[in-house]
Amino acid sequence: MRPLVIAATLLSLSACTEIEQAADNTGRQVAKGAVAEALATRFPQVPKELLTPFTDCVIDNAAALEVREFARAAVVGVDDAMIGTIRNILARPETQQCLSQRAAAKGIF
Fold first, then answer.
1. Which of 59, 72, 88, 105 is most buried when burial is the number of CB atoms within 10 A of its CB?
2. Looking at the record's lineage, which domain of life comes first (predicted)?
3. Taking the model in full, what pTM does it have?
């Protein structure tokens, strides 16, 4: 009986992890739209051909709370606080490295 309970618990935890991952992926997809809009409208120095790679770098280097803020902005709109968050993420060394790699892959910079 005990092994059955342990197996059921492990299976339940695995399902929770999969659900959390699916929710995170959905949130990141929704957030991408808001970040892309913000980059296109508030960061004119971002070349159009790098809009998607820059968006991906911002999302990939955002913390969970930041992604949640971006997903909220997809519903209520882009505000100055979100722009500040994007600026902070863009300033991170990991994001800078991501941006450089994506720009080089596109033959820009």
1. 59
2. Bacteria
3. 0.77
